[in-house]
Amino acid sequence: MPIAFLKKKNSKKFMIIVLTIILFLVVSFLAIYQTQVYQGKIWSYLGTSDDRFHMMRIEGLYHSLQRHQFFPIINMSFMNGFGYIVNIFYSDFLLYPAAFLRLIGFTSAQTLMGYYLLINFLTLGVSFLCFYKVSRRYMNSLVFSFIYTLSAYRLHDMLFRRDIGEVGALIFLPIAVLGIYEIFYGNRKHWLYLTFGMTAIIYSHAIAPILVAILIVMVALFQIKELKVHPKRLLSLLWAAISSGFLSIAYFLPMIEQLHHTKFVLTETQSMLPKGASDLSDIVSWSLNNTIGQPNIGLVLILAAIIVLVTFTKVKNTAVRHFSIIAVILLICSSKVFPWVLFNKTPLKMMQYPWRFDMIITILLAIFVASDPLNIFSGKVSKFILIGFALLLTISAEYRLVNESSLQLVTQAAYNEPYPFSIGAGQEYLPQGTNLSTLERTSHKAKISSGKAKISNFKQYGTRLSFDFKNARNAKVDLPIIGYYGFQSTQSTGKVSKLHVDKKNNNLAQVTINGKGKVTVDYFETMTQKVSRRISFLALLIIVAALFIKKLNLVDFKKIEGLRNNKD
């Protein structure tokens, strides 16, 4: 009898898991149906939009994998082979599934649909599991996953702006917030959630970690009394920061190295903080209208923010109360009410636009709604109604987006056409002084800028370029690649100089040749890139090994001197 009961219980649990997975798949599809599938067309701003930029990132990784370059540094699909060092500043971490879809024969349009389906499913699943880890309540976790994943700001990011990097970071944000909760309110020894969440965010989107760091500082200020009583919580935060730092060395050090050797456009970009801020009335209006054509938090969450303002003193759960108050503060700070002009020349300018706070506001208010501290949605029926309402708002917002700007609907055939010179509106990763329009008109071949020589047999395969030369007399030859740090001519034969950058000609790579021989130029991993990647990989192995040892109880850490557990 007990065995039959256990089997029945396990069978019920299995069915719930299966049905939840099916539900997430259906919702993931419905969330992109209007803009990606309906009528066989895709709604998108083309040209120099983020859409084309990120699709070219995928295309470049796909072509690199075809050449068996599994960790490319330069994206050579950009600018028809002139190359763009976007990979150093914008990690390819989350693009591999999309590149794999291209490898197995999917078109760009089909890849986008499949990739967005995967991203939606992962966001629903990760957010559900993170909330369930704390609450242990299925329906509340389901509410959180729906409110968070179908939030207006996330849909704005995914369907309007097409910022794949930030949409990817939103997959891992719940893990980071779970880590913040554990460190400051729960079991501080679970700091690895913050480590892995923050690391994944860093490798997904360069700006999002700044926002998470701001959240950590604000939570620490709210919990200052608790930290004075239990200072070891700060030690857990330090361990999380150190571990994440080691795991992220492979990202930060190569970027710093490139910035040291080259002055990029991004370093001279003016701050957009004051100009990017919106009126608070506009933010509220956009949210109440639940539009995804403007950055906002949507109808459900703006109503939640209003409720927080009126009732936060009645919220008994300390973490939920703090999170909701921080959300309202950031909502106000994301507008022109906050004096952003004072922060124009501070490190905070890296966040570019104040409305990026919506990312943090969204998850904190979603926690408030799902936790339901005021028992507004106490029954299962009311929770199902809320979930259904969130889905209907999503369908409505997408329908309005498509129909109000129907000219942006393009056929899949049109979408499949690549635009290699769509490198992002800011052109941040070009060396200063590079003229994109001139590059677009430049023929893709080696060209003698001074001196005399006969060159022939020019070839390019990815980052590798070569040509034969003879009768050369101090001939300076410009190659059709941007001369990023790491390109070398060491495999050449004959009298060939080191590779230089021709700053007078769009920062193209240049070599000086004499006599007869063969020029071979290729990109080689720098020592910094090699060492940093190995350090991060070793750090990952150590963390995984420690977790494995602890899980199997292979070592009793309590008996090791200096590692004995003490009460906080």
From TrEMBL:
The chain crosses the membrane at residues 14-33, 81-101, 113-132, 167-185, 191-222, 234-253, 296-313, 325-343, 355-377, 531-549. InterPro entries: Uncharacterised_YfhO. It holds the Pfam family YfhO. The keyword Cytoplasm does not apply. It comes from the Bacteria. Keywords: Membrane, Transmembrane, Transmembrane helix. This is Cell surface protein.
